[in-house]
Amino acid sequence: MAWWRRKKDALERPEPGGKVSVPAGLWTKCDSCSEITYTEELVQNLRVCPVCGHHHVMPTGERIATTVDPGTWVEHHEHLCSGDPLEFTDSKRYKDRLDAATKKSGRNDAFVCGTGKVDGVEASLGFFAFEFMGGSMGSVVGEKVTLVFERALEQGLPALVFSASGGARMQEGILSLMQMAKTSAARAKLREAGLPYISVLLHPTTGGVAASFAFLGDLILAEPRALIGFAGPRVIQQTIGQELPEGFQTSEFLLEHGMVDRIVSRLEMRDQIGLLLRLLGFGEHIPRANQTMTDGVIIRDEASAP
């Protein structure tokens, strides 16, 4: 018998007590309660732990698919990508980091913008791609965030930005810091026109993003237990030499101190945003009688809806 046949037989019939390999990614262990869940089931539950409600990191593509109504999403400016004007080099060249991030994430930079309907309401939307260099904000990210506001202004649409970022991108130096002023100025024009901007803070939202447009929303929503703040809690604790309050810089802490308007589970986010946009005068109003609540999620009754 050939050697490859004997190897196959050994794999098919492992010896008693032998280990059987499990395909990588088949199961996911919750970071909060340590419950092990079948990954496919976790994805179907929007990567929210069915036991404790912990919100796992959600890839940007899934975020867009679960937020925007099917068939309505149109991405804009996907061709924009960062240059290296400072020819920055640390342990690696910035250009090499960009190439690696593009290859890993399949995206040209850390922000995706476009238009689409959220629960039937047309909006100008932006999503941070944390999988690209930790969602850091460079010149391209600042430009695309600005375009979200400018498109909303041009078309008379509400603006929504889902933020998940480590802050300004150090490899672009002052050019990245300038994006804080640029995006805030574009947001101010939207406010002057009386068009609403809903900012959704995800885990984590920190640095220059938190210090600019992320906290300038007319309504600021956050996912549960998200880390939100300028500097990280360890940096603050080491700087001031004092113990921080329990739960410091979580979305719950910020809600208690008036920095966030509402904490919304990912399972309810789309419906809650749609409801808020209709209350702000956009889209068709859906009477409460035409909605039912199932497991905390508002379900629209299509048969009786206008």
From TrEMBL:
A zinc finger (C4-type) spans 30-52. Its cofactor is Zn(2+). Its EC number is 2.1.3.15. Residues 26-295 form the CoA carboxyltransferase N-terminal domain. One of its GO terms (biological process) is fatty acid biosynthetic process. Pathway: Lipid metabolism; malonyl-CoA biosynthesis; malonyl-CoA from acetyl-CoA: step 1/1. Binds 1 zinc ion per subunit. Keywords: ATP-binding, Cytoplasm, Fatty acid biosynthesis, Fatty acid metabolism, Ligase, Lipid biosynthesis, Lipid metabolism, Metal-binding, Nucleotide-binding, Transferase, Zinc, Zinc-finger. Pfam families: Carboxyl_trans (PF01039), Zn_ribbon_ACC (PF17848). One of its GO terms (cellular component) is acetyl-CoA carboxylase complex. It catalyses: N(6)-carboxybiotinyl-L-lysyl-[protein] + acetyl-CoA = N(6)-biotinyl-L-lysyl-[protein] + malonyl-CoA. Component of the acetyl coenzyme A carboxylase (ACC) complex. Biotin carboxylase (BC) catalyzes the carboxylation of biotin on its carrier protein (BCCP) and then the CO(2) group is transferred by the transcarboxylase to acetyl-CoA to form malonyl-CoA. This is Acetyl-coenzyme A carboxylase carboxyl transferase subunit beta. It comes from Enhygromyxa salina. The lineage of its organism: Bacteria, Pseudomonadati, Myxococcota, Polyangia, Nannocystales.
